[in-house]
Amino acid sequence: MRLTCPFCGPRDVAEFVYEGPFSGAPQTERPALSAAPAAWVEAVFLRDQPRGETRELWRHLHGCGCFLDVLRDTLTHEVRAVAFADPADAAAMRAKP
Amino acid sequence: MRPYSALDVLWNGLTGQRGWTRAWRDRAPRPAYDVVIVGGGGHGLATAYYLARNHGLRRVAVLERGLIGQGNAGRNTTIVRSNYMLPGNREFYEHTLKLWEGLSQELNYNLMFSQRGHLALSFDPGFRDAFARRYNTMRMTGADGRWLSRSEVQARAPYLDWSQSARFPIEGGFLQQRAGTARHDALVWGFARAADARGVHIVQNCEVTGFLREGGAIVGVETSRGEIRAEKVALAVAGSTGPLAAKAGLGKLPLETHKLQAFVTEPLKPIVHQVISSARQGLFYMSQSDKGGVVFGGEIDGHPSYAQRGGLETYSEVMSKAVSLAPFLARTRLLRQWAGVVDMSMDGSPFITPTPIPGLYFNAGWNYGGFKATPASGWCYAHTIAHDAPHELNAAFSLDRFARGRELDEEAAGPVPRLH
Ligand SMILES: Cc1cc2nc3c(=O)[nH]c(=O)nc-3n(C[C@H](O)[C@H](O)[C@H](O)COP(=O)(O)OP(=O)(O)OC[C@H]3O[C@@H](n4cnc5c(N)ncnc54)[C@H](O)[C@@H]3O)c2cc1C
Ligand SMILES: [Zn+2]
């Protein structure tokens, strides 16, 4: 399996770490500190079990270090899309020479 | 069922092996049962057997989408041990080891259970201290285990890297002598045969595709071979739990589905006499099968997957661990490599429990370790199904333990399945 990091290009999956499911914005992945315990239990411990296409948060740990928004198929291992998970990263990485 | 005996073997040897009959019957499904078990792996078949044997239930069916034992039951590295420390886990795993010790006799089926010992290598004082605590706890709660010095380990496993230049110098190890390996297919067939003899229906090529409901309760299943009604429906589908549980209406679960690979070398003369495990650079474990192949494996691939196909990155990682620990493996040829889809729970411990949905029972979360658990899992699950409540041995394996702050995190790794 290969992931194409938007900054580093196509790299072997061994360079990346799977972090968990992703819904679109790193800031909204966890509940507010004041949220009810049930919301925290859900965020920390409970998972959907997608068999097929799924959206996940990965990190290019042994590369640029960015968090990545990955669209992937858990049945075929096809990677459909990889983007920066954090728009701020996208801007900062583009600004680098 | 006529019991197998030495005389039988001798007689059939003399008469051209013509006297053997089918070990169990491949049944067509009936329209209704008392209990329907979904999944013909080790756990489903063991559950059916104990429902009949311990609880007198006769109208029980095991529905398997393919052939029995084609899932993880037929793909694992067959290590059986009870070196668990946490209350809730240790009693359960010691119970399973005790069941294993009498199981070949009880099932009248040779499971080739070999208590050759499980040796966890130690490389540093931190590991030694943590494992000394673990093995002392085990000794105090009825299991066996002891410390071996470097020279004692070397005497048992001279083929490991004992040189000055070893990547990870071994300083000793922890031995559980009653642990060992067994024949995985024999466990499946042993339980199938014994369950069939007690009237359980084993139905193959019967995939459960949905659930029949009345009011809020589940009252049966939809299958590729028609509807089957049941008073109780019990899931035991290991790596397929997520999608099926979602159809049943259980919602989000404390599980992630990953793939785990295993490897076997060409047959060699006996050399690896114990099960060897190492927690250095991540997990590694190996043993030698009775056929001579060195069977080994490492960690899960690290990302959710339902493909029974391993990735090259983990493959090469496991190979590097193998040759750094046991250099002779570099000179052997690898015969086969395969993967299974494992139900990793968020704390590394399993679930055997009734569910909030009336009529539905839940068994999953076996991670790397469900083969050894098979007898006790079936025993406890049968009790849970028959009594609508867990036995004290599986009381800790509930689904709501996370919400109650009662997770059973044996490795103290946190809610990250790839670290368990
Ligand atoms: C590579 C590998 C190595 C392992 N090594 C060890 C080890 O050394 N020691 C140890 O203790 N454990 C080990 N395990 C774990 C162990 O194999 C599993 O935890 C255990 O086998 C799971 O229980 P089971 O036997 O019931 O699962 P399975 O054999 O997977 O049974 C589940 C069954 O359900 C069926 N099914 C799925 N969906 C449906 C449906 N919709 N309808 C009908 N049937 C369905 C499947 O076809 C399958 O036969 C290993 C696992 C793997 C993959
Ligand atoms: Zn990168």
UniProtKB/TrEMBL annotation, chain A:
It holds the Pfam family SoxD. One of its GO terms (biological process) is tetrahydrofolate metabolic process. It comes from the Bacteria. InterPro entries: SoxD, SoxD_sf. GO terms for molecular function: sarcosine oxidase activity. This is N-methylglutamate dehydrogenase subunit B. It comes from Albimonas pacifica.
From TrEMBL, chain B:
PROSITE patterns: RHODANESE_3 (PS50206). Residues 35-79 form the Rhodanese domain. Its cofactor is FMN; FAD. This is Sarcosine oxidase subunit beta. The keyword Lipid biosynthesis does not apply. It comes from Albimonas pacifica. It catalyses: sarcosine + O2 + H2O = formaldehyde + glycine + H2O2; sarcosine + (6S)-5,6,7,8-tetrahydrofolate + O2 = (6R)-5,10-methylene-5,6,7,8-tetrahydrofolate + glycine + H2O2. Keywords: Cytoplasm, FAD, Flavoprotein, FMN, Nucleotide-binding, Oxidoreductase. Coiled coil: none annotated.
